[in-house]
Amino acid sequence: MTSKMQYRRLGRSGLQVSAISFGSWVTFDNQLKDNTALECMQAAWDAGCNFFDNAEAYAGGESEAIMGRVINELGWGRHTYVLSTKVFWGISGNVRNMRNTLNRKYLHHSIEGCLDRLQTDFVDLLFCHRPDPNTPIEETVWAMSDLVSRGKVLYWGTSEWSADEIRAAFEIAERHHLHKPVMEQPQYNMLTRDRVEKEYARLYDDIGLGTTIWSPLASGLLSGKYRDGVPADSRGALPGYEWLAERLTDGASLAKVERLRPIADELGCTMAQLAIAWCVANPNVSTVITGASRASQVVDNFEAIDVVPLLTPDVLGRIDAALA
């Protein structure tokens, strides 16, 4: 492992995760099969990554299955990496109300499927993938806490919950002496900032919230590779992702991104490395989840750790001005 990687505590927990991590959203199954997924995960591991993120709903469960097979083939000791997944959307269709919910029954069943596909006895982190307005938060908190008590999960948290919902869950757990939510997985990048920087601002000190942020490149937009349209090998060109192609070719956003190019050139890094390093530079970010469709991309992304020390207050100010 490289000695350059930083490791940060996940919120107030004692668990340490690599500041840059690797996730499987969109790429696994859609772009990566087992062999390429193995190459990418090994490249991340070699760069010092110890945290690998997944979700039940990614590729209808196949993303978890691929990651489970790859880890099994790589033969990593279970104590050497942090594995996460997320539940809410379900993968069994709308029949019998087993989708889009966080009720106790769904959580009880879904974790078993996740563990089976990932070929493991437990996940380190389990996220409630979205809030469920139809299930009392108290029911979800009790069920998630029970999964921790049963040893199926070591830490639980939320993804894209509001600050009020997170605080409510924490206070319910505290009141009943249950296992509290430890982390939140929000979108965060140079173009999507308010939730992490403003809405959650008090939660970092008040409850010790950790964050495992996703989409540091704004689905690739901040890589700068979309100024001439959508490349054929990018996720924006995948069937079913036409909505993403529209977002990636938005003129106003592209103009902001191009204003960042001289800063990246001056620092001697790629646009993607600048965007990832910028996320890492936020002390309230525990880890930045990156994705890739090939191993060389993984290597480039993880080299962003070298750019973090270059982001002086002056450089960060220039980035803010470019994005204004």
Written account of the structure:
The chain is α/β, with parallel strands linked by helices. It is about 40% helix and about 15% strand. The protein has a single domain, classed as TIM Barrel (Alpha-Beta Barrel). It has helices at about 35-45, 60-75, 105-120, 135-150, 165-175, 195-200, 205, 240-250, 250-265, 270-280, 295-300, 315-324, and strands at about 5-10, 15-20, 20-25, 50-55, 80-85, 125-130, 155-160, 185, 210-215, 285-290. The strands form 2 sheets. It has an 8-stranded parallel barrel, surrounded by 4 helices. Strands 1-2 form a two-stranded antiparallel ribbon. A hairpin with a 6-residue loop joins strand 1 and strand 2. The longest helix is centred in the last third of the chain and has 17 residues, at about 250-265. The radius of gyration is 19 Å and the shape is globular. The N and C termini lie far apart (about 40 Å). The mean pLDDT is about 95.
Fraction of helical residues: 40-55%
* Count of structural domains: 1
Biggest beta sheet attributes: 8 strands, parallel, barrel
* Alpha-beta classification: alpha/beta
Set out the fold topology.
Elements: E1 7-9, E2 16-18, E3 20-23, H1 34-46, E4 51-53, H2 62-74, E5 82-87, H3 104-118, E6 123-128, H4 137-149, E7 153-158, H5 163-175, E8 183-184, H6 194-199, H7 203-206, E9 210-213, H8 242-248, H9 251-267, H10 271-280, E10 287-290, H11 295-302, H12 313-323
Parallel strand pairs: 3-4, 3-10, 4-5, 5-6, 6-7, 7-8, 8-9, 9-10
Antiparallel strand pairs: 1-2
Helix pairs in contact: 1-2, 1-11, 2-3, 3-4, 4-5, 9-12
